[in-house]
User: What shape does this take?
Amino acid sequence: MLLDGAEVLLLCSNNYLGLADHPRVRQAAGEAAERLGAGAGASRLISGTMALHRKLEGRLAEFEGAEASLLFGSGYLANLGTISALAGSGGIVFSDELNHASIVDGCRLARADTFVYRHCDIDHLAHGLEQAGDRAKLIVTDGVFSMDGDVAPLVELVELARRHDAMLVVDEAHGTGALGPGGRGAVAAAGLSGEVDVIVGTLGKALGSYGAYVCSSREVVELLVNTSRPFIYSTAPPPPSVGAALAALSLLAARPGLVEQLRRNAATLREELHAQGLGSSSSRTQIVPVIVGDARRATALCERTLEGGVFAQAIRPPTVPVGSSRLRLTVMASHRADELRAAARVIGGAARDLGLGDRGDQAAATTFRRAA
Ligand SMILES: *Cc1c(COP(=O)(O)O)cnc(C)c1O
Assistant: This one.
């Protein structure tokens, strides 16, 4: 791609499967605009609901193996609207400390209390659940963690949720299109389809469009329709986005090879970074962080890397905990293996130039992060 006129390798897009610019997806967006307009004109409960919205909701429910599904304006709004609607006063939301900002804000908006458990720490969560007694409980987690690329311990979470009569919400923003059979996500990859109470997903990442969805039982979806304020008080998703997402879902079903290619590419980048003495050992996915620690050093690594023709973003606090600044790399299915290997060498060279990049450095950063 071109960045300010210079050719660079894009390693920080969530358009994992290249569907955002696939000809069929573009065409579907155009056709929806021609046929139905650029905007929906009103919120869903006024006059904004079109057959196209219902069709996408049906497809998404089928895709996730759920009874029902509901569209939201974005993943951010879906998390805000789901957590605040499902966690009322008197209840407790149990949230992983590295959950996405939209989940954190959903907890803030909910009338329930919040218990933040240590990252993927099942014992800490179990302890919190025990303390909660018979209060209403909701556990919420990223399926794939957006800044680390690791996967939540979903089997244990499902088991704990059952044992403590808690509702479980999994955010598949980075799992959809990337993990599991047919790109059905982290929950499907763990063999748990149909076992998680609520799935939140975005249309804005692997599905190449904009908007988001919640999949759950009919009862929960009905509750959201009637009480979720970001759903009720916001304009329905625009037809071009809905049409594009429908086309992307069809392509995903028709081309499971894309998901395979993404997986292979992610493995290639992780291996090649490891060979350079870099790359977080916890990543299992297409999100691969190179933990640096200090924010200024992360920015310096980003700039050096860009000089070498590789575009990846430095991520700093408050997006990640203090002391865990990083270069966050995201792989796409369209990358070639040789491009990824060359990129890893560029990053490795830049890290060495800056005196980073031995494993000791990274281990220190990781320890610091856990302590923070
Ligand atoms: C990106 C992201 C969101 C927000 O989705 P948008 O559709 O971009 O608003 C929510 N959760 C996680 C884990 C994300 O990474």
